[in-house]
Specification:
Layout (H helix, E strand, L loop, with lengths): L5 E6 L2 E7 L3 E6 L6 E4 L8 E6 L2 E6 L6 E3 L2 E3 L1 E3 L5 E4 L2 E6 L9 E4 L14 E7 L6 E3 L4 E6 L2 E9 L2 E6 L6 E3 L2 E2 L5 E2 L5 E4 L2 E7 L1
Parallel strand pairs: 3-4, 4-12
Antiparallel strand pairs: 1-2, 1-11, 3-5, 5-6, 6-9, 7-8, 7-10, 10-11, 13-14, 13-22, 15-16, 16-17, 17-20, 18-19, 18-21, 21-22
Amino acid sequence: MDSMPSITVKLKEAVIKQLQLPQGDLSIGRRLTHTLVLEDAAVSADHASIFTVGQDSFLKDLGSTNGTYINNRRTRKHHLKPGDEILIGRYTLVYSDSDCAPATPERLTNASAAALPASDSGDAALFVLSGFNNGKRIELKAPVTHLGKSGRSAALLSRNGERYVLMTKPEATQVLRNGKPVPAGGTVLESGDIIEVGDTRLQFYQR
């Protein structure tokens, strides 16, 4: 008998759940009626689905606000291959063509993050969700990364070991993290955070 496709759900490199993909649709989103519920502000109520027929699985973004990424590239539809990494909010779903536990409705929350190991440093990026350079991935390799228009940065990301701190400039227009203003002293980012600088929206990602 052929093995069935499956996904491994990870949060900050820790394995949270393994699911065998059912034939037909597996729905993903923040809404409690989905097969896989991901409780994260960056996840839309109806975010994505994986349709499986035989040994083939197809990922589809359901018009989500912050997008669905395959191997660090934003996508609307994708024929999944073994080893593909699906990024949805803070969560990474790794596709495999081997068996695991059958899928049942599952609710995952960020509360479990407190028990997870610290993420590795040096592997962080920003995904441009909307605005100038939409769809671009910005690697965060420098000690300081400026955000905003060329020559008129409104905020900066400062790397401090494994942490990335978002800070705003006094003269800048409002900069938001997950819809809330960044405090004067700055704020430590977590993977999946949404940053808004003017009309540009970005998502922070760190392994």
